[in-house]
Specification:
seven-stranded mixed sheet; alpha/beta; Quinone Oxidoreductase, Chain A, domain 1
Length: 341
């Protein structure tokens, strides 16, 4: 089999090795598609929390090729989606209902590979059988979509809420769709016309091309009643400067969701007077939970989103680096690695 290994910033390698053998409770999936993600791009460009080398990619869908001892939930030939993590359900944070903060989170990277072994914890908690009508491309969206579902679940959205989504990459677009479904009026901000057009399709009522306005905060506030600011601002870029902009554009008593992960060591300076006297809520969020993975998968089954909405170009596994570089330019939403190319 062939797979992609990460060795360091802008250093990935296509290698060949034996197909893994599943242990008790595990399955091996023959991947059909894998998707590029903003996190993959960040890892490619600047590294990650783990020391390399490590298997690369984390959004995929495929067909069960082998099952380990004791697996009854799935059979060889089943079309499945397997999430890339599962919590332990026994640490302090899991018992407190904060599964995304699990101290023993099982990770399973390696979606950019022809075959992938799925750990028992993920098989049990976060692997799903695809209905006949669901494509592998749509199923592979479950991982990022579950993160947006988790984030949206924490927002104090009411019917008619004014929400600004800063950044119209894959997650930003998912937030736009979810907030719109909950009855919000959404303002979308981005630097590329291609992504703003997608934002319109996801339901954004207003779009702002940030390079074409003098002041992004003023432009957002001008679209709210009496210029007071939005009820909720979502940062979906991962830049401290955009975290700051998001804080500046909410009304008194507003809510800011800091979703985009920033480079390690980054800091943001808060105006303590504004935070205190305007009673702002600034909340960070990380990853997702099994409950939200389930909800995301059910919504994808309902047709809330589809692979066609997000995938721009297709590549073979030997072209993974090209797919990541193209994604990083900001003119596509996602690229797809197809293992039959």
């Amino acid at each position: 089999m062939k797979s992609i290994v990460y060795h360091g910033p802008e250093q990935i390698e296509l290698i060949e090795h034996e197909i893994p053998i599943p242990g008790p409770g595990e399955i091996v999936v023959q991947n059909k598609v894998a998707l590029t993600c903003g996190t993959d791009v960040k890892i490619y460009k600047r590294g990650y929390i783990w020391d390399p080398p490590f298997a690369f990619g984390h959004e995929a869908s495929g067909v069960v090729s082998e099952i380990g001892e004791g697996v009854e939930k799935f059979a060889v030939g089943d079309r499945v989606f397997a999430h890339n993590t599962a919590p332990c359900n026994s640490c302090y944070y899991c018992k407190s209902g904060l599964h995304s903060l699990c101290e023993n989170l099982t990770f399973n990277m390696g979606a950019f590979a022809e075959y992938q072994k799925i750990p028992r914890e993920i098989v049990v908690q976060n692997t799903y059988l695809l209905p006949d009508a669901m494509s592998h491309e749509t199923a592979a969206l479950t991982e990022p979509f579950s993160c947006a579902v988790y984030g949206t679940d924490l927002l104090p959205i009411e019917m008619g809420s004014k929400v600004c989504v800063n950044g119209c990459g894959p997650l930003g677009l998912m937030f736009i769709r979810l907030c719109t479904l909950r009855g919000a009026e959404v303002i979308a901000c981005d630097m590329t016309e291609e992504r703003l057009e997608k934002a319109r399709k996801m339901g954004a009522k207003h779009v702002i091309h940030v390079s074409e306005v003098e002041d992004q905060v003023d432009s957002v506030r001008a679209l709210t009643p009496d210029g007071r600011g939005v009820d909720i601002a979502i940062e979906a870029v991962g830049l401290p400067s955009v975290w700051d902009l998001s804080i500046q554009m909410v009304r008194k008593g507003g809510f800011v969701l800091c979703f985009g992960g920033t480079k390690k060591g980054s800091t943001v300076t808060l105006d303590t007077t504004k935070l205190h006297y305007e009673q702002l809520t600034v909340k960070g969020i990380f990853h997702t939970t099994p409950r939200h993975v389930m909800q995301a998968f059910e919504m994808l089954k309902m047709g809330v989103l589809s692979g066609e909405d997000f995938i721009d170009h297709s590549y073979g596994i030997a072209e993974t680096e090209e797919a990541l570089i193209e994604h990083s330019k900001g003119h596509v939403i996602k690229n797809c690695i197809r293992f039959d190319q």
